[in-house]
Amino acid sequence: MRWPKGVLWDMDGTLVDTEPYWIEAEYALIEEHGGTWSDEHAMNLVGSDLIDSGRYLREHSGINLEPAEIVEELLDRVVVRMGEKVPWREGALELLSALRETGTPCALVTMSYRRFVTPMLDSLPPGTFRAVVTGDAVSRGKPHPEPYLTAARHLRLAPEDCLAIEDSNTGARSAEAAGATVLVVPNHVPVLPGERRVFRDSLAGLTPADLPALRAGSDAPTEVRVSS
């Protein structure tokens, strides 16, 4: 089989541009509870495990809620927004559909919880993702490699045989620590070069036939810029 044998997709900011939904929910929640927030703090949470985000938000916003309560309240708000509209990123649906047509197995690897992911999954053809790894299904979230190791195992593939698609430093660290090559498509936050990272400005126009050229091997430079 040609590389990649599987594709591991991040969700928030990569497959769908839900970060504005999360930020909107953070500001609303914090205002209701008498705290303060900033765009800088919001950007620091991009790609992070939800409980870690809840801890960070409690520490920096000044509100008196437990991290788990913060997460559940944020999820309540963002799930409503996802039910109204799934904000796909440019080129994501087209690449996902093309991979399904070629028989390339895909897994979803997100730190969002399953109830948040459900509206997006319901909008896709059955079997689009052969595995779904969510933040409430792992003991250690991104940037730990566990989420991507779990996804590759569910696909019965070695991580190095997989391409991960990410938009954040936190997610890229998780995927490359697992051993996967990471296609980074930055969105709301800049992403640094890394050992197993290749970069593209957009997923628009990217096809399964283009993916083998993205492989970052031992002799590859630390950053490969692929024009969109």
Portion in strands: 5-15%
List the secondary-structure elements in sequence, H or E.
EHHHHHEHEHEHEEE
- Helix segment count? 8
Q: Which CATH top level class of the largest domain fits?
A: Alpha Beta
CATH superfamily of the largest domain: HAD superfamily/HAD-like
Strand element count:
7
Identify the strand order in the major beta sheet.
3-2-1-4-5-6-7
Domain module count: 2
Annotated CATH topology of the largest domain:
Rossmann fold
Helix fraction by DSSP (H/I, runs of at least 4): 25-40%
Overall geometry comes to globular
Please state the average pLDDT score. Answer: 91
Taking the sheet with the most strands, its summary is:
7 strands, parallel
| Cα-based radius of gyration, to the nearest Å | 17 Å
First-residue to last-residue Cα separation: 26 Å
CATH architecture grouping of the largest domain: 3-Layer(aba) Sandwich
Which regions contain 5 or more consecutive residues with pLDDT less than 50? 217-228
**Helix-and-strand structural type:** alpha/beta
